[in-house]
Amino acid sequence: MTEPTGPRIGADEWVARQEERLKDSGLSRFGERLGKRITPPMRFGLLVVGLAIFGIATSDQYYQRVGFNTLYYAALALGLNVVVGWAGLLDLGYVAFFGLGAYAYAFLDSPQYGLHWPTLATMALACLGCAVVGVLVSLPSRRLFGDYLAIITLFFGQIFYNLVGNLNATNGPNGLTNLDPLGFFGLHINTVRQYYYVALVVFVGVVVVLWLVNQSRTGRAWRSMREDSMAAQLLGMPVNWLKLLAFAFGAGVAGLTGTVFAALEVNIFPSNFYLDVLITLYAIVILGGAGSMAGVMLGAFTIIVGLELLSTPDNARLLFYGGIALGLVLWLRPLRWIPIVVGGTIALGFVVNAIATAVWASGTKPTSFGGQSQTMSSWVVELTDPTKAGAYGYAILIGAVLGMTLLKGWMRKVALIPVLYLAAFVWENELVLNPSVTALIILGALLVALMIVRPAGLLGKARVEIV
Amino acid sequence: MTPLLELTGVSLHFGGLRAIGDLDLCVEEGEIVSLIGPNGAGKTTVFNLITGVYDPEAGDIRLAGRSLVGVPAHKRTRLGVARTFQTLRLFLNMSVEENVMAATFCHTRARVWQSVLRTPFQRREEREVQTLADQKLAFFGDRLAGYRRGQPAYSLSYANRRRLEIARATAANPRLLLLDEPAAGMNPVETHEITELIGRLRTEGGYTILVIEHDMHVVEGISDRVVALDHGVKIAEGSFESVATNPRVVEAYLGLRAAEEEA
Question: Between A234, A464, A466, which is nearest B51 by CB?
């Protein structure tokens, strides 16, 4: 910038010279400049190379399947991100399009109706067909925004679920079975690794197309509509048409992803397309940061891989205690309270465990040496029949946590000691035994914590309404 | 010659309230016309009628001879009307540059598939949009230039937000520019700057301008003609001097007693 002559009113000189300051070389700026040098397309290229190598490197089918899940959820969430993140429309019927794509594949490539279309034709039809259905569904709701639109789309999602669950053509709740494997130009896709690569190609395609659209006049118009639909309309953007277009893009992506999902699953059921998928998708988009493509990818990775990690007790235990330890280090101030609370909890545990095993030997597991962990079992009271006590303990724990918020100062910190021990008790006696439920509870707690700390999501930009 | 904008007998009611009553208004090509009146007189409602937020219950609105009644709001922009907002309705979470580029939507043509394929047409058009945005922002000197272009609109100061609103409206390539209180909330120096800027918008930009303004220095400085509204009815029209001294205008602003004392 040229040096301004004389005083300028309304221009902050310090701010105005930001560019010059940024030119400062030095090591601290090196990382920043390197970050700017590597453009988003290059970063995405690196990611794709990494993902491709992962497919070759791992021979474990389980890892390949988790990779496949992450990729198709990422693609789905990116489609939802068009509607929710860019256009700013709350779409609760999104999973229906995913299901529609899957059922389209099931109809056209299975023994059910004796049809065996070429995969590419089915994919194209599912993608475009879902886009058209997306337009048709949003036609009656094109004037709606916010809550009203959410209700209408939720209604559509439910209609789809009920229809495929009851129609004879879709075999009702028994679903459609024995779908053909994907096949491209005579090459049949059979192994999980091959499906992983198909999902990777679909994912890359979705990212590239959506990125190009976002970097065009249409993308700008979508974002304008999200920011202020009235101003957008009055500046010449056809808001209704843009909404239909956003829905069409979301639905098309979902339909395409549905075909790949159906082919790998071989059998599909209405329950594959219920609210839990929608909730997972929203969790991905919100956690990652609505509107940010990189954020949504990171969100898909975090949620899908996180859920997998939590489903095995040993990993889950590590995450649980690790999370508590991290929380204490981050939030417990002054720092001298950390050894007090941790030491207190450990001491309390040994005392309670010693008393409990002595007094009620029949109901508790003895301090074993062959169990999961020696120190653990001599610290936490483990019941032989944990179902009831675990449930009561869980309820009491929630009450205790709520009660703790009413306490102030040192009393809260002291109260933390029994609460932590109670949490460990509930964890060992109740939650570890039900990994699928626990995974969701932990995930929910993580989401709540993240939303408090970083409302815009991991990579999302904090949105400013009024300044 | 047909005037660029012509309102004839336009009326609008909100329930039992007469917002606009039998309004005639005409703006010639190349003119700067000011719309004044006390708060609640219906000035912004006139803008809303022209831009299509509302349609009039009676009367006709014509742009270069073509009726706008019933034409959807976004098509009116394509026909050559663009506005700013009194309450500032920028796309706050988009960058300064993107705000301006977004407003070119109405006169760009690339379809979605062309954007996906990045056809030569689309790329050429995108370059034109970029050049246009550069031009429109350059109009404001260094106010919106340099590092500010990449910053989100919410980081701008109030006065710069008003400038960006004008830049965004001009990016729609309108023939008629509607400015709703462009000098509101500005300090005297900035107000003076805005006055000059509106003049430059006509001479350099070639826009015809209808402006709502409360600051009488601005109105005096820019207007070819002044139209005064009160309770939705035109109470005076003419040069700044004749309208400012018109007893009905003084009465509308200051009340009957004050008007009598002045007389």
Answer: A234
One domain for residues A144 and A213: yes
Residues A418 and A374 in one domain: yes
Q: A268 has which bridge partners? A: A176
Q: Which residues contact B12 (CB under 8 A, 6 or more apart)?
A: B18, B19, B20, B45, B49, B54, B56, B57, B232
Please give the residue range of the domain that contains residue A137.
40-309
Q: Is residue A11 part of a domain?
A: no
The phi and psi torsions of B8 (rounded to 5 degrees) equal: -125, 120
- The DSSP output letter for B42 is S
Question: What pLDDT sits at residue A437?
Answer: 81
| CB contacts < 8 A (A, B) | 127
Quickly count: other Cβ atoms within 10 Å of residue A449's Cβ: 12
What's the number of domains chain A is made of?
2
Q: What number is the ipTM of this complex?
A: 0.93
Determine if the peptide bond prior to B152 is cis (ω within 30°).
no
pLDDT at position A159, please? 93
- Residues 168-227 of chain A with CB under 8 A from chain B are 209, 212-213, 215-218, 220-221, 223-224, 227
Residue A466 lies in a domain: no
3-state SS class at B180: strand
Q: For residue A110, give how far its alpha carbon lies from the nearest alpha carbon of chain B (Å).
A: 32
From the list B21, B10, B59, B32, the residue with the least C-alpha distance to B239 is B32
* Partner residue opposite A234 with nearest CB, options B83, B115, B126: B83
The arithmetic mean of pLDDT across residues B195-213, rounded, is 94
Chain-chain contact of A209 with B116 (C-beta, under 8 angstroms): yes
Task: State pTM to two decimals.
Answer: 0.86
Cβ of A213 and B115 within 8 Å?
Answer: yes
User: Any CB–CB contact under 8 A between A18 and chain B?
Assistant: yes
Residue B142's Cβ-count burial label (10 Å; 0-12, 13-18, 19+) is middle
Same domain, A100 and A212: yes
**How would you label A191-210 residue by residue, b for 16+ Cβ within 10 Å and e otherwise?**
ebbbbbbbbbebbbebbebb
pLDDT at A9: 47
**Among A286, A309, A332, which residue terminates a domain?**
A309
